[in-house]
Each structure stands twice: as C-alpha cells, then as structure tokens.
Specification:
alpha/beta, 14% strand, single chain, 5-stranded mixed sheet, 5 strands, 277 residues, Pyruvate Kinase, Chain: A, domain 1
C-alpha cells in the first residue's frame, strides 16, 4: 500500500482522466446523431439514383459499366478514422483489409490518418489519401470518385471495392465490402419507357453511374463515421466506469492508510504515556 500522499495524487489523476472520458463520450454522442441523420438522407438519394440507373440501364445493357472484367488490378476504397480511443474500430478495418485480396496489389484509396499510418508502417502503398474529418462531406466523396472513376473508365482497373464499417446501432457494427463498379445486374419488372435523353442516353447514363458511385462512397464515409463515433461512445463510457471503480478502490486504500496512520499515532501516544509512569 502506497503512502497517503501518493494515493491522493493517483485519485486526482484518475478524476482528471474521468472528466476527459466523460466529455469525449458526450461529444461523440452529439456528433453521432448528426452522422445518422446524414446517412439516412443519403440512402434515399442513392436509392433514387439506382432507380434511374435501372430505367436507363434497360437500354444500356452493353455498357462497360455492367460488364465484369477478367483482367486488371482491383481498386480498394478503405474508410478508416483519423483518431484512436474508439475501441477496436480501426483494428477491425485494418484486419479485414489485410485479409482481402487488395492488400498486396492494386490501387489503394484510404481515408483516416490512423489507417494510413498503419498501412505505411506495413509497407503497403497508398495511392490516394483523404483525412476523415469531424463529419464527412459530399466534397470528400466527390474527390475520391473523381480519382477512381477514370481509372475504371480507361481500363486501368477491373473493379472498385468499398471497404467500410456499417452502422447498425450503438452496440453493433460490421465491416462490409461493397462492389462499386462494375454495376450489379439490374432487375426490373417495368418495361423501359420511350424517353428522350439529352445530350444522349450514353452521356446521361455515365453521369448517373458517377453520381451513384459518389453517393455510395459518401454513404460509406457517413456509415464509417457513425460507427467510429458509436465505438468511441462505448469505449469512453467503459473508461469512465473503470475510472469510477478505480477511484472507489483508491479511496478505500486511502481510508485504510489513514486509519492505520491514526492507529499508529494513538499507539505511540499510549506507549509514551506508559513510559512516563
């Protein structure tokens, strides 16, 4: 058992840490609600773009955006976090990426300083990098899409995969891999309508595909941010509870040390009084 001064010092240190973890928990909770709302709004937009792709795609079945490719490298867009203190969030993303086929080859597009530094440490090249930021913006998704989309159009890569953490609820998340391009086969029961597309059907279809890829990337960024914030909430809540338990244990040790000190002083006074008789 340490001295009372050391115990008091440790109690103050743990209390200061507890204030930080409680504040981080509250900040993550407030940002999580905004990320969830943005993700739900973007899902509706993505569904609308996909419906339009289904309609015009009935006339563009021979487009290269539908056709699978046998040869070429793969492009992986991996969504990570800038900061730590969010439990196993970063570790799970890194593990799934290292276990994927794209870890050793292909084009790597990465968001998040933590993930970027881990890949650099392992000697894995990063072709394009974006910081995660406090909350993803459409501009971030647009920049990433503008980088990967031409690579597919020119045939430099055979496919684009998005690796991110899907937000289910505060306590549940899962790492998912979604194929952005080539597009999955469309399924529609409606016959294609006889519509006039300007400037051309092919040009409109290409723009829609670009919007669809951008929207999926943006959705991955939002889902990843919501998952990161939820993981940080859980981690900081657990850290706050652990700090509370530690404070109680240290307080008990302090009281025991204080009681032992008082008992020793009483014993010394009694002993001195007996010696004077």
């Amino acid at each position: 058992m340490g001295s009372m001064r050391d115990i008091r010092r440790r109690i103050k240190s743990v209390e200061s840490t507890q204030k930080i973890t409680r504040a981080m928990n509250m900040i993550a909770a407030s940002r999580l609600r905004k990320a969830q709302t943005s993700a739900e709004t973007n899902r509706a937009f993505t569904a609308a773009v996909w419906d339009a792709l289904q309609e015009i795609g009935s006339h563009q079945v021979s487009s290269p955006f539908w056709q699978p490719r046998e040869h070429g490298a793969s492009c992986y867009v991996v969504v990570g976090a800038d900061k730590g203190l969010c439990g196993p969030y970063n570790a799970n993303i890194l593990r799934h990426f290292l276990e994927s086929e794209g870890a050793g080859q292909g084009v790597h597009v990465v968001t998040g300083r933590r993930l970027y530094s881990q890949l650099q440490f392992r000697g894995i090249s990063v072709d394009y990098y974006e910081e995660s930021g406090d909350l993803p913006t459409p501009d971030q998704a647009e920049r990433i899409a503008d980088y990967v989309f031409p690579l597919f159009v020119t045939g430099e890569i055979k496919e684009i995969q998005l690796l991110y953490t899907r937000f289910i609820n505060v306590l549940s998340r899962e790492v998912r891999t979604v194929k952005l391009l080539p597009l999955d086969e469309f399924h529609t029961s409606k016959a294609g309508q006889d519509l006039l597309w300007e400037p051309s059907e092919e040009a409109v279809f290409g723009k829609l595909v670009h919007h669809y890829v951008t929207s999926l990337i943006y959705n991955g960024l939002l889902e990843g941010k919501a998952s990161e914030l939820a993981a940080r909430m859980v981690a900081m809540d657990a850290a706050t509870d652990n700090a509370d338990k530690m404070i109680k244990e240290l307080t008990l040790q302090y009281n025991q040390a204080r009681q032992a000190s008082i008992t020793q002083e009483i014993a010394e006074i009694v002993g001195g009084a007996e010696a004077l008789r």
